[in-house]
Amino acid sequence: MNLNKKTVKDVDLNGKRVIMRVDFNVPLKDGVITDDTRIRAALPTIKYIIENGASLTLLTHLGRPKGEANPEFTVKPAADHLAALLGKDVKFVSDCIGAEAVADAQALKPGQIMCCENTRYHKEEDMKCKGDADKIAAQEAFAAELAKLGDVYVNDAFGTAHRAHASTAVITKFIDKENCVAGFLLDKEIQYLGQAVANPARPFAAIIGGAKVSGKLEVLTALIEKVDTILIGGGMAYTFLKALGHSIGNSLCEDDLLDVAKTTLEKAKTKGVKFLLPVDNIIADDFSNDANTEIVGVEIKDGWLALDIGPKTAELYANEILDAKTVVWNGPMGCFEMPKFADGTMIVCSAVADSDSVSIIGGGDSVAAVNQSGLADKMSHISTGGGASLEFLEGKDLPGVCALTDR
Ligand code: AMP
Questions:
Q1: pTM for the complete prediction?
Q2: Residue 273 CB less than 6 A away from ligand 1
Q3: CB distance 165 to 125 below 8 Å
C-alpha cells in the first residue's frame, strides 16, 4: 500500500465543492456527545478547506443503523457540535443523497459547510458485496449519488479506512482521480503508523494487551516479524501462561488457541524476539472492584482469576519501554476500568509517557486508558482508529487509503 498520498494541500480548492468523509461516530448519551475527540480531530482539515475558498459537504456514519433511517443514530448532534466549535453555521441535511442534498450542496458559497445525515441510513453504504455483481452495482450507484455532492473528495476518516464502504472508498470511482485526497488526520495516521512499520527506530517494543488472544493474533504474528520486544498483558496473557503449563484458575482463557499460543512463542524465539509474559499477577476472588485480591506469581489458585499484571511485571515492562525508541501499544494490561485493577496499565502508560520513544497508541481501550491517566499529550501519536490501526500493523491494505491518489 503506497502511503505517499496526495493531501488537501495538493489540490486547488479555490471555488471548489469539497466532499469530506469524516469520522463523527461519537459516543452519545441521551442525545448529548460524551466525547468529542473525533470531531475535534477533523477540525484542522475542515478549517483548511473553508479557509482556502471551497465549500464543504461532510459525510459520516454514526453507530449501526443497519440501512434504515433511525433517529437514535442521527448525526445532527455532531453537526451542531461542530458548528459550536467553529462558531459558524453548519447546515444539516436530512439525507446524504437525492435532489435536495445536491441542491443544498450546489447552493453553498465558498466557506460554507453542510453536514449530511448518517450515510449508514442507506444499506448500500456498508453493504458486504463479496463479489456479488448486483450488490456491487447497487453500492456503486449509491456512491455515484454521493459523488454528485462535490468535485473534490477528501477522506479524513481513518477510523473507517479499513472498510471498503461507499463513502470511504467506492465514491472515488466517481470523482476525478486527481481530486481524491487525504485530509491531515488520515495523512498523519498513515505517516506515523507507516514509519513505525517500515523504518522503526530501535529497540522497537510492542505492548499488546486486552481481553482475547483471538482479537490480536494477526497483529502479534505480524509484529513478531518487525519488533525487538513484545510485552503481553491483559486477559490474553493467561492463554499463553496456560500453554506453558501454568495453572490459571478462572482467568480468561481461549482453550482452542493453546496450540497457537505455543507456536507464537516458538516463532518469537526463532526470530530472536523477546516475548515477555507476566511474572506476577493481581488475582481476585470475583470479577468486581469489591473483590478480595492478592498478588501472586504465575500460578493462580482455583476459583480465583487474574485481573491485572503484578508490580514486578509492571516494573519489568516499564524498564523495557524506557529502553525502547519505538513503542506501539494496543490493549490494556488489566481490567483498568476497575480502579483496583488499573495499576498495571497506568504504570505502563507512565513509562510510555516518560520514554524517549516514538509512541503510537492504537485501539479504543488503550486510548481510554491514556486519557484516564492524563498523559495523552506525552504520547507521539494517539490513533483515532482502533480497528484500522490494528489492520495497518497487521500489514493489510486499508481500502480507504488505497482509494486515494498517489503523490
Ligand atoms: P480489547 O478490546 O481486546 O483490547 O480488550 C479490552 C478489555 O479487556 C478491557 O475492557 C479490559 O477490561 C479487558 N481485560 C483486560 N485485562 C483483563 C483480564 N485480565 N481479564 C479479563 N478482562 C481483561
A1: 0.88
A2: no
A3: yes
